[in-house]
Design brief:
This protein is an alpha/beta fold. The chain is built from three helices and 24 strands. It is globular and about 50 Å long. The termini are far apart. The model has no long low-confidence stretch (mean pLDDT 95). It comes from Paenibacillus taihuensis.
């Protein structure tokens, strides 16, 4: 496998950052270090480069591409805010495709998106920018996944589904074919979504119904 030329820097140092490190190494990507508010020590052999301010002052932006190293547990805007802030500073993003993922050649993947271990992206699916498709998630044919969405581990998005920006689909959840989810929707872990869901809603259960926000 040919290494990716431009090295990457990871924003954040939590558990998701460790997943990102191993996914990047599966593609022979060089990892320079991570950026966070404080030094958490070596992260799987990856060093701390400083705070946001220190990194921006000491490293030339054109030398690296960035990867966001934190996820989310419900719909929200933290990852969107980070993506837009660093983009406004003219940093570039790495799109991360774990070597064990299966991606249709007709699928489209946005910048800064993370396709992690064991995932399947099927024919003519469109995945937006800054999306996490977490371990062993499945995105079926002709789905449209908006920017800044997190599809948690083991979730299944059936054919023709539309998911709006900044939504979170919980671990093991299933969204049935043709369903449309609005923006900033949270689907609880293990839920089965059988009806369209409006913007800003939280749904849980089998079948999924409106829950607490």
């Amino acid at each position: 496998m040919k290494p990716v030329d431009q090295p990457i820097v990871i924003l954040g140092s939590g558990g998701h950052a460790s997943v990102i490190i191993e996914a990047a190494r599966s593609r022979l990507m060089e990892i320079v270090g991570y950026v966070d508010k404080e030094d958490k020590g070596s992260l799987l052999g990856v060093p701390w480069l400083g705070t946001e301010e220190q990194f921006r002052a000491n490293y030339q932006l054109e030398l690296f591409r960035l990867v966001i190293g934190f996820g989310q547990i419900r719909a929200g805007f933290k990852r969107k805010d980070a993506f837009e802030r660093w983009s406004a500073w003219n940093y570039n993003w790495a799109t991360l495709l774990d070597a064990s993922s299966i991606i249709s050649p007709s699928a489209l993947i946005g910048i800064g998106t993370q396709i992690l271990a064991g995932t399947v992206i099927q024919t003519r699916a469109v995945i937006g920018s800054n999306v996490i498709v977490n371990s062993r998630a499945v995105v079926e044919h002709e789905c449209r996944i908006g920017d800044h969405v997190h599809l948690a581990s083991g979730s299944v998005i059936c054919g023709g589904v539309r998911i709006g920006a900044c939504s979170h689909i919980g671990a093991g959840a299933v969204v049935l074919q043709g369903i449309q989810l609005g923006e900033a929707v949270t689907v609880g872990a293990g839920s089965v979504v059988t009806k369209n869901v409006p913007d800003g809603s939280t749904v849980i259960g089998i079948p999924a119904r409106e829950g607490s926000k």
